[in-house]
Amino acid sequence: MPAHQFILNGQSVSVELPSDVPLLWVLRDVLGVKGPKYGCGVGVCGACTSHLDGEAFRPCIHPVGELTGREVMTIEGLGASGLHPVQEAWIAEDVAQCGFCQPGQIMAAVALLRTNVQPSDADIDAAMSDNVCRCGTYVRIRAAIKRAALLLRNGAMGTGGPG
């Protein structure tokens, strides 16, 4: 089996697996990273949303063989040294109910705010439309993104983690 090396949450990792194994299984079952959740397995629910080279992506549909030399960040890496402003806003707005979708929602929100720190409702809706919340906390998700955007515009970097 080939070895696949990539950066995961700032650390170099190497796994020896068939190249077509989805990264989500590698993260959860091989590396013990449980933040990205299995929701649908076909890239439509957003529960596993993480970042690949700084952009939101779905590990459930990306084979580990495509990741050699690339950088993956999960929710664990985002808050590795303290809460990111998006995480702080999520708590302040009391977004989570069941919490299952929240890691993916937060990672999608961070990706949005990386390129747009003053998103309109339409911008938020468009960026978050592929992340499903079974509890329907969309109003609170939007409020948290607006709060995080304000924190970022005001220079708050949270208590750690890359933005």
From TrEMBL:
<dbReference type="InterPro" id="IPR001041">
    <property type="entry name" value="2Fe-2S_ferredoxin-type"/>
</dbReference>
<dbReference type="InterPro" id="IPR002888">
    <property type="entry name" value="2Fe-2S-bd"/>
</dbReference>
<dbReference type="InterPro" id="IPR036884">
    <property type="entry name" value="2Fe-2S-bd_dom_sf"/>
</dbReference>
<dbReference type="Pfam" id="PF01799">
    <property type="entry name" value="Fer2_2"/>
</dbReference>
<keyword id="KW-0560">Oxidoreductase</keyword>
<keyword id="KW-0411">Iron-sulfur</keyword>
<keyword id="KW-0001">2Fe-2S</keyword>
<keyword id="KW-0408">Iron</keyword>
<dbReference type="InterPro" id="IPR051452">
    <property type="entry name" value="Diverse_Oxidoreductases"/>
</dbReference>
<keyword id="KW-0479">Metal-binding</keyword>
<feature type="domain" description="2Fe-2S ferredoxin-type">
    <location>
        <begin position="2"/>
        <end position="78"/>
    </location>
</feature>
<dbReference type="GO" id="GO:0016491">
    <property type="term" value="F:oxidoreductase activity"/>
</dbReference>
<protein>
    <submittedName>
        <fullName>Isoquinoline 1-oxidoreductase subunit alpha</fullName>
    </submittedName>
</protein>
<dbReference type="InterPro" id="IPR036010">
    <property type="entry name" value="2Fe-2S_ferredoxin-like_sf"/>
</dbReference>
<dbReference type="GO" id="GO:0051537">
    <property type="term" value="F:2 iron, 2 sulfur cluster binding"/>
</dbReference>
<dbReference type="Pfam" id="PF00111">
    <property type="entry name" value="Fer2"/>
</dbReference>
<dbReference type="InterPro" id="IPR012675">
    <property type="entry name" value="Beta-grasp_dom_sf"/>
</dbReference>
<dbReference type="GO" id="GO:0046872">
    <property type="term" value="F:metal ion binding"/>
</dbReference>
<dbReference type="InterPro" id="IPR006058">
    <property type="entry name" value="2Fe2S_fd_BS"/>
</dbReference>
